[in-house]
Amino acid sequence: MSAPRTDRLVSIDALRGIAVLGILMMNVQGFAMTPFAYDDPTMQMDLTGANLDVWAFAHTFFAFKFVTLFSTLFGAGIVLMAGDGEDTGRHYPRMLWLLAIGAIHAYFLWWGDILVHYALLGMLAVKARRMSPLKLVIWGLVLIGVTSLIMVGGGYLGVMFASPDSAAQEAEMMAGFQTGMTTAYQAGFVDRLPWNAGFALVGQIFSMIALGPRTLGLMFIGMALFKSGFLSASWGSVRYGILALITVPVGWWLCHTSTTTMIVGEFSTQAMADGNALTYVGSLVLAFGYASTVMLLAKIGVFSLIVKLFAATGRMAFTNYLSQTLIMTFIFVGAPGLGLFGTVERVDQFKLVLIVWAVQLIWSPIWLHFFRFGPLEWLWRSLTYGGLQPLLKGKPAEAAS
Asked: d(Cα 282, Cα 276) in Å, to the nearest integer?
């Protein structure tokens, strides 16, 4: 049985950095618009010309891909932190503190929080860490299949029961809902708290039921990929290259077809069901292609500086994820923020994402030049160990008394 690892793996950190940046391309819609506009892009503001192009780009290359990577890496992190011995170490205190931080994030800052989801499922996933890679992959695929029945099957059930009358009633209800939510969010931080808390609660229940099996399955697969050496860039370059050459084009084709299906079908219930089915599968394939590509680049010396830049961002993924919320909340929620909710089109949302990417890619390596951990990583670690951990570089690595 192996003990938890204490060294850093640049390949995993780099992939985590890419994942935390990538999820913002999708999450920005949840900050800037009503939650339902995330699933139905026709719900709010313009969806023509450049705005449609931005949506198509994000849907093809980002939708479900980077949260897939995050879930996979979370599973790998469980094996890294807990090892595969009988003792789970500090895994459960770590998950409990993540749950507490996630609850604060979800109910006070942003309803789209993923930390609560990960903390709860992480307490289950740790039980599987001693399985063989093959068993982990098999069970992971089974769980992913369960969610496909819920998500994809639910989409086609919606097609079966759709009617012009129900669509008209839903549109009227959503219009009133959108107006009320926009007014509250623009009014200020306190005014929108009931809306945010309500959506956080509903979102957490829905995510556990509908997406929980997929997330848990991806955690299992992440454990298998770590144990097999895939995520530590231990495989040969040719192997990674072949995998990337197969999975990236296939994944892109599935996701591109999903995007064009929705656009050509004018986002009808049938077009959305067909498109989401393609995305469900395509996102898994393309995410694996992204991971294979990153592992390949991590083995090529000429890319080492770029890989290390993303690795620094990944080492501070917790801080960067929550700082994205603080930035976006200030921009889109009213006093003390700017209150731009419901007014920033997708093109400008895209520009905001690029700016945040640049800031986080720059500030992460600068911070880590002086400190051992990101600020929130340090807080989480200190809470887990029950004492302040050394933060400045050059200090003893042992926990402070």
From this structure: 9
pLDDT tens by residue, 279-296: 999 999 999 999 999 999
Q: Residue 108 and residue 88: Cα distance in Å, rounded?
A: 31
Residue with tokens 């144990």: 227
**Residue whose token pair is 């603080």:** 326
pLDDT score for 165:
66
Provide the 3-class DSSP secondary structure of residue 338: coil
pLDDT at site 4: 47
The CA distance from 197 to 106, in Å, is 7
Say if residue 65's pLDDT is above 70.
yes
229's tokens: 């050496």
Q: Which residues touch 280 (CB under 8 Å, ≥6 apart)?
A: 64, 148, 151, 152
Residues paired with residue 371 on neighbouring β-strands, in sequence order: 392
Torsions phi, psi for 343 (to 5 deg): -125, -10
Helix, strand or coil for residue 57? helix
**Rounded CA gap, 245 and 260, in Å?**
23
